Amino acid sequence: MPSLIFRKGLDLKHAVAGMLADSYHSALVDQIKAEDFTYRNGRLTLHLAREFGFCYGVDRAVDYAYQTRERFPDRTVYLTGEIIHNPHVNEKLRAMGIRFLSDAPDAIPTLDGGDVVILPAFGVSVAMLQRLEQRGCTLVDTTCGSVLNVWKNVRRYAEGGFTAVIHGKVSHEETQATASQAVAYGGKYLVVLDRAETDAVCDYIRTGGDRAAFISRFANAASPGFDPDRDLERIGLANQTTMLMSESLEIGDLLKRAMLDRYGEAQLADRYQAFDTICSATQDRQDAVVALLRDTPLDVMIVIGGYNSSNTANLARICAEARPTFHIASPDCLVSADEIRHRPVGSKMETSSRGWLPASGPVRIGLTAGASTPDNLVGATIARLSALCDAAC
Ligand code: SF4
Q: Which ligand 1 atom is at minimum distance from the Cα of 241?
């Protein structure tokens, strides 16, 4: 039996609206937005970035997951993995009885037409989609339109004979899904994480070099059989949607200049293409935090979001260049007025720091949250900050 696929929700938006509000809404956040994104209590002045938290894609994915549970109360409902990179939201879905195939990959061959599988906002690889379709499951596809836009460009590159150079994290689900689109359409891909990796690609484009060393360096980040002598002759740039905008622009510039140096102006259009595929929600959150840092005197920045959330990590990178910054996963990371648990920029581990909050006198805190962080966590963090400032005055 072919799969039944829901791509536009399940006509139960109104039925789940109350549940979503109960789970993720914050009256305190609404109040702060209405008061020019500023909160004052005692010695604390808190400034909220003007764009933060749930993006349109995450909003929709979580909404569809709740609609799915409502529509199929008696069927086994799975997610392929985390629906978004926020532990609080994923735990709520588990509590609703939704199972995670990432916890039990051996379950995939046992799925059948009675099972329902939700695909996350960042999409799944072509191979995963085919496996699920073969099982005949009912699929609820929440892949964000901005991710679909990246795939469209990557497919066009593949059909035009361009290798997709993807600025992204190779282990990220979205980047894996995007890369799989290139291969499915007969193309090649190469994933670059940062400027250092891009420099290595640019050096090879300009002058060639040690082919074996290049292949080895990018072994986990390139399509099967990738040959830099052949597959860097025509390239198209794409981004994971949640990368740092300034870095993606720089990477595009570096690659373009390398192609220009190698092939000259006359051939450039036939050798290099680029489309900005960073999504507008990521861009808006980055712009808002840049404005907050630029326009507001702040002692400390707090960034809330899952530690595996790419867009949250990039917000923390921006903040850390300008202010003492603490990326926290949840309000309980604010252990006391003296101690905070957080993930430092560039680190993979959570750590604990002391003396993070000025012990006395006025304190000005800036706050933002990644695109997968619901308002209730933002509100609870602000309430906790307020209580800690009171306690330490
Ligand atoms: S971060 Fe962007 S691409 Fe990802 S779900 Fe949100 S809007 Fe869509």
A: 3
Q: Are 330 and 343 in contact (CB under 8 A)?
A: no
pTM beyond 0.85? yes
Chain segment 30-66, per-residue pLDDT in tens: 999 999 999 999 999 999 999 999 999 999 999 999 9
Contact 326, 303 (CB under 8 A): yes
Q: What pLDDT, on a 0 to 100 scale, did the predictor assign at position 277?
A: 81
H/E stretch holding 59 reads helix 56-71
Q: Does residue 338 have a pLDDT over 60?
A: yes
First to last CA, the chain: 66
Q: What is the pLDDT of residues 240-253, one digit of tens each?
A: 999 998 999 999 99
Residues in a beta bridge with 10: none
Nearest protein Cα to ligand 1, atom 5: 57
Residue 388: helix, strand or coil by DSSP?
A: helix
Within its chain, how far is the Cα of 205 from the centroid?
30
Q: Residues 174, 250, 265, 321: which is the catalytic one?
A: 174
pLDDT for res 1: 67
Q: CA 293, 298, 300 angle in degrees (round to 5)?
A: 100
Atom of ligand 1 nearest to the CA of 84: 5
Query: Region 331-359: what's the mean pLDDT?
Result: 96
Evaluate whether 370 touches 376 at the Cβ level (below 8 Å). Answer: no
Of residues 220, 93, 74, 16, the one with CA closest to residue 101? 93
Phi and psi at residue 302, in whole multiples of 5°? -115, 130
Residue 222, beta-bridge partner list:
190
Sheet of 138-141, strand order: 4-6, 138-141, 116-119, 77-79, 99-100
CA-proximal residue: ligand 1, atom 2 (nearest): 279
